[in-house]
Design goal:
By secondary structure, this protein is an alpha+beta fold. It has 2 domains: 1-133, no CATH class; 173-262, Nucleotidyltransferase, domain 5 (2-Layer Sandwich), CATH 3.30.420. It is built from 10 helices and 4 strands, in the order ααααααααβββαβα. The protein has a 4-stranded mixed beta sheet, covered by helices on one side. The longest helix has 27 residues, at 2-28. The chain is elongated, with a radius of gyration of 27 Å.
C-alpha cells in the first residue's frame, strides 16, 4: 500500500512537472504586457489552467479549484502574474538606465485615473501598488548595470600563459618558478592579484589576494571547483572595477576558467 502511494505521488509530480513547461510557460509568457487586460478577459486563462491541473493530477471535474492548487503546488494565475510582475519591476529597478526604472505617472494622470477607476493603470503604477500592498515598497534594490556594453559587442578576452609548452609532469618546479619571476619582472608595474577556488566535504569557497587585503567567500555546497574559480575571478574584477588605477594583473591556476572566458 505504501509503495503504491509513493508511486502515485511520483506520477503526480512527473505530470505536474510536465505541465509546468508545457502549459504554464505559454501562459506566463508576456503576462507583464497582457496583464493590463480586463479581469473578465484574464479569467478565460483560468479555465485552461484548471483543466491542465485536473489532467496532470487526475482529479475529478467536480474537485474544488483550491484543492487543485494545493495538490499540484501551484499558485493561481493572478498570483503568478503578480509574482512575475514584481520580479520584473525589481529587475528593472536594479538597472539605472532601464527605460521604466525612473518612469512615474504625471499628477494630472493620477487625478484622471482616480476619477475613472475603471481605467487600468500602467504597469509601473500597478507594480508600485502591488509592492505597497505587499509591504515591499521600502525594499532597497541594489544597482547592477548590465548594459555597460551591448551583448552583440562583447569585448574579446585574452590571457597570458607563460607556462604553455611545458609539461607539468616532466618539468622541474624550479623552472615554473623562474618563468613566474620573469613574468613578474616584465609586468612589475602591474598590481598582482591572486585568485583561487576550492571544494572539500561540505565546504565550497574562493578567495582573492590583494596587496592589502585577502577577502574570502563562502559558496553553496552544490557549487563545483570550476564555479568557485570563476566566482573568485569575478570578485577580483568587481573590486578593481571602480578603481582609478588600471594596471592590474590577475593570476589564477584554473586553465579551464580562462579557456571558458576566452570563448
Amino acid at each position: 500500500m505504501c509503495l503504491a502511494q509513493h508511486s502515485q505521488i511520483w506520477l503526480l509530480c512527473q505530470k505536474t512537472q510536465h505541465n509546468q513547461p508545457t502549459i504554464l510557460s505559454r501562459i506566463d509568457y508576456g503576462c507583464i504586457v497582457y496583464g493590463s487586460a480586463r479581469p473578465t478577459v484574464l479569467r478565460r486563462l483560468d479555465t485552461i489552467h484548471h483543466s491542465a491541473l485536473r489532467i496532470s493530477s487526475g482529479a475529478f471535474r467536480t474537485s474544488p479549484v483550491e484543492s487543485l492548487y494545493v495538490i499540484c503546488h501551484q499558485l493561481p494565475l493572478y498570483l503568478r502574474r503578480q509574482k512575475i510582475s514584481a520580479l520584473y519591476f525589481f529587475r528593472a529597478q536594479s538597472v539605472p538606465r532601464h527605460p521604466i526604472s525612473q518612469l512615474t505617472l504625471p499628477a494630472f494622470l493620477h487625478r484622471l485615473y482616480a476619477a475613472r477607476p475603471f481605467h487600468i493603470l500602467p504597469f509601473c503604477e500597478r507594480a508600485k501598488m502591488l509592492l505597497h500592498d505587499s509591504d515591499l515598497n521600502n525594499v532597497s534594490v541594489q544597482f547592477s548595470d548590465f548594459f555597460t556594453f551591448p551583448p552583440w559587442e562583447i569585448p574579446q578576452f585574452s590571457y597570458l600563459n607563460s607556462f604553455s609548452g611545458f609539461d607539468k609532469s616532466s618539468t622541474a618546479p624550479v623552472t615554473f618558478q623562474q618563468l613566474f619571476h620573469h613574468h613578474r619582472y616584465q609586468y612589475s608595474s602591474f598590481i598582482p592579484i591572486f585568485t583561487d577556488g576550492s571544494k572539500s566535504d561540505g565546504h565550497v569557497g574562493c578567495g582573492v589576494v590583494f596587496p592589502s587585503d585577502t577577502p574570502s567567500y563562502r559558496l553553496n555546497n552544490c557549487c563545483s571547483v570550476f564555479t568557485a574559480e570563476l566566482v573568485a575571478i569575478f570578485c577580483a574584477l568587481q573590486e578593481i572595477s571602480p578603481s582609478s588605477q588600471r594596471n592590474f594583473i590577475i593570476y589564477t591556476d584554473s586553465m579551464s576558467a580562462l579557456e571558458t572566458l576566452s570563448l
